[in-house]
Amino acid sequence: MYDDMKLRAYPDGQASRFFYFGRLPDYVEMTFMHRYLRPGDGFIDGGANEGVYTLLAAKLVGSSGEVHAFEAVPLYLARLRGNIRVNHLTMVTVHSAAIGAKPGQMPFVLRGVGSRIQTREDRASDVSTVDVDVVRLDDALPDREWAMGKLDIEGAEHQALAGAEKLLARGEPAVWMLELVDRFLLRFGSTVTEVREWLADYGYDFMYYEPGHNGLVTSPRSNIETPNVLVVSRERRAEVEARLNGAR
Predict the structure, then answer these.
(1) Which one, of 11, 2, 82, lies nearest residue 37 by Cα?
(2) In 3D, which of 128, 81, 129, 125 has the Cα closest to residue 105?
(3) 204 pLDDT exceeds 90?
(4) Contact 232, 167 (CB under 8 A)
(5) Residue 202: phi, psi to the nearest 5?
(6) With contact defined as beta carbons under 8 Å apart, do 161 and 197 qualify?
(7) Helix orientation angle between 27-36 and 237-245, rounded to the nearest 10 degrees
(8) Which residues contact 220 (CB under 8 A, 6 or more apart)?
(9) What digits encode the pLDDT tens for the residues 71-87?
(10) CA angle, 231 then 219 then 166, to 5°
């Protein structure tokens, strides 16, 4: 994958996405990364799973860059570390933790790719859980510039962002890639609209990327059309677009 990288294939893993969808299985999001990220950049991967995005980011930022990957599920954590090890990715730091608004320990529901911090609705049903550490991004990340962050954590995205208020206040990272689904966010007491308005107060706007035109388009003020959205710092949008215009 990604020209010269390896991803160990498991029957229940993510390698099948490359067989079915090709070199960039999440074409829009991964094309944006290819055209935006540069050697030496910092990248945050929240909900890294086996490392599909971690490996791509590592490929793009290179040995002079820095990737911090967060994964709480023990099975995926072991696979992530294995994929990092086989590719000799010394620029990647793995955090065995979930991301939230407050540090501590919490039960984590184990449901394959739907694994997440336990909520009240889970406690009413028979679910398998494991206790995991929860960290705030403001506490866990080193003090440096961050080009991009990705969060795909099954509805806890607003909580994770609430633990990154210091980063957000200074426009770091310039771009967030978020998966936002109302029915997932509602588990944690939030909605897509609330996340949009909350981030707007920090100077971030919801955007879409159009690979064909290699440009950013402002999202409509109503609801978003797809779960995946780019959130771009208003003050740094020109910087982001300049990178796209000079894409490799």
Answers:
(1) 2
(2) 129
(3) yes
(4) no
(5) -95, 5
(6) no
(7) 90
(8) none
(9) 999 999 999 999 999 99
(10) 20
User: 3-state DSSP call for residue 225?
Assistant: coil
Strands 148-151 and 175-179: parallel
Q: Considering only CA atoms, which of 209, 220, 218 is closest in space to residue 244?
A: 209
Reading the block at residue 207, the tokens are 């955007």
**Pair of tokens at residue 47:** 């909900």
Contact 66, 43 (CB under 8 A): yes
Q: What is the per-residue pLDDT for 225?
A: 58
**Strands 228-233 and 66-70: what pairing?**
unpaired
The CA distance from 104 to 97, in Å, is 10
Of 41 and 127, which is predicted with more confidence? 41
DSSP E strands in the chain: the ranges are 42-46, 66-70, 92-95, 98-99, 104-109, 116-117, 129-135, 148-151, 175-179, 204-210, 215-218, 228-233
Tokens standing for residue 14: 């993510």
What's the full length of the chain, in residues? 248
In this prediction the pTM is 0.94
Contacts of 186 (CB under 8 A, 6+ apart): 155
Query: What's the pLDDT score for residue 222?
Result: 44
Span 224-229, mean pLDDT? 74
Torsion of CA 90, 93, 96, 99, to 10 degrees: -150
Cis peptide bond prior to 39, omega within 30° of 0 = no
Secondary structure class of 238 (helix, strand, coil)? helix
Identity (one letter) of the amino acid at 227?
A: P
